[in-house]
Amino acid sequence: RMGEEGLKLLTFWSSPFACRVRLALDLKGLHYDLQEEDLFNAKSALLLESNPVHKKIPVLIHNGKAICESMNIVEYVDEVWPDRGTGFLLPRDDAFARATARFWADFVDKKFLSLTAASFKAAISSGEEKERANDEMIQDMVALERFLESQGGVFFSGSNTSMGFVDIAASFLPWWLPTYTEIGRLRVPGPDTCPLLHRWIAAVKDSPEAKAAFPDQQELLDFTKVRFEEVKKRFAQ
Amino acid sequence: MSKGSVKVLSFWSSMFGLRVHYALDLKGVSYEYQEENLFNKSKELLEANPIYAKIPVLIHNGKPICESLIIVDYIDSVWPNPHKLLPEDPYKKAVARFWADFGDKKVYDAGSRLIRATTEEERKKASEDLKWALMKIDEALGTIAPRKPFFGGDSMNFADVALAPFICWFKGYQKVGGFVLPGPEEWPNLHKWVTAVKSVEAIRKSTPSEDKVAEFAEVIRKRAIGSA
Lengths: 237, 228
Known about the structure:
Domain GST N-terminal (chain A): 5-85
EC number (chain A): 2.5.1.18
Strand order of the largest sheet of chain A: 2-1-3-4
CATH topology of the largest domain in chain B: Glutathione S-transferase Yfyf (Class Pi), Chain A, domain 2
Distance between the termini of chain A: 48 Å
Number of helices of chain A: 11
Number of helices of chain B: 10
Radius of gyration of chain A: 18 Å
Catalytic activity (chain A): RX + glutathione = an S-substituted glutathione + a halide anion + H(+)
Strand content of chain B: 5-15%
GO biological process, one term (chain A): glutathione metabolic process
Helix content of chain B: 55-70%
Helix content of chain A: 55-70%
Oligomer: heterodimer
InterPro entries (chain A): Glutathione-S-Trfase_C-like, Glutathione-S-Trfase_C_sf, Glutathione_S-Trfase, Glutathione_S-Trfase_N, GST_C_Tau, Omega/Tau-like, Thioredoxin-like_sf
Strand content of chain A: 5-15%
């Protein structure tokens, strides 16, 4: 099926970066071609041409031009199609609110999608080091809870019904948290300490767009279990 | 030009801090500057940036904005003229953001590892990574703005502001990490860019002396080795 204005997303089913871009595109109601990349065997010529610097997915191709880096893609989509679907993702008229949204999206990246994050360190380490890093990760989630509280709605956008920039940035968490607990053997804060975050998780999981964008939970768990052993070997001190 | 009170909390040699100075100075925005002692952070800094306790922080009309590229974006929104930093075209904007982010992920990361390397193996890898990253910038300048001095063409844009602070650290990378920048025969675009950036008055205003930065890089290395 021909993509809208030649929209194509180079993706990988279990990449949190790629899935959150899919979510943004779906929330905007955009039609696009999905090209699943075979990251472990051979990256496509299109991927290598479109992202020659990093050679990574996701890449959005629009009218023959490539946009890379997931939240960069989300900003691009928001700028080109501001009023489509659920409307704008970043606050429109308030520079400070925009800066705040970018800050918390960046926080999610630093704390949950980075190799220097406490969450990652906690997963691959053991003993006292693991517990200390796990405590730090819990503090990071409490910080998210506080921010969510300050926004006054179900979602980080402040709305009770529409997701925004920070929601999209964090949208992988409902599917990835079970991998932290079951495979990383990490503690995560429960609904008693982070009630709003748990309400948010339920709301995201309930969203038809999010369900379509993110992988089946069990498939993700099975895949992560295998990959985790390889990752641990590579990064353990 | 004033749109309320503007205060910058930063550290003289910080590349991230310099981005904020460059953005404000290019736009002619007046601001109060507060130098932070990173070993004895002010109460103001800890309150303004409770999550990371890091500089730079921009405080505008009492509200704090953190993370250098987010600050530059904010400055460009509030003071679009003169000297708009982000292109209007969404694709060109995305390209500028990509290279700004590249500065953090690849240039800063390699440079930081180079200075803090405790083994020859670490130093060599960091040096190779830094060389690769700067080579990519040289290539990008040729592709994005051929025959023009800046990523932004005739004037500096978001990507130029994000990357320009590394220039005053090259001497430090050489002194401490043995990193030698390939010459203009190899990297003509990068060298043209460096010359053009250094000629901008607003950039010269807050750029620290390269020798002082190199001395400071030496201090960082000694500390890194000392704690290894």
